[in-house]
Amino acid sequence: MPIFRGLLLVAAVWLVFVISRHLLRSHRARTASPPAPTYIATVDCASCGLRIPKTEAVTDGNRYFCCTQHRDQKIHAIGDDRK
Ligand SMILES: [Zn+2]
User: Fold this and answer.
1) How far does the centroid of ligand 1 lie from the alpha carbon of residue 39, in Å?
2) Which of 6, 13, 45, 77 is the most buried (most CB within 10 A)?
């Protein structure tokens, strides 16, 4: 009965697929880490001291500024000090 064999094969493949999918899901559920706490790194503006998110800060080397104006002011101020 080749038709019966074919149906048996299809059923076996389907069963393996369903079981492997179930195992994969339960494995993922176990290994998934809990959501990380929302921590935003902040930095102080080197010019005015305003605390801002690091991702929004304007950088000049290892210093952070709240805006390009303050960065430029600080650079010019340092330039004036050197005179
Ligand atoms: Zn500033």
Assistant:
1) 22
2) 45
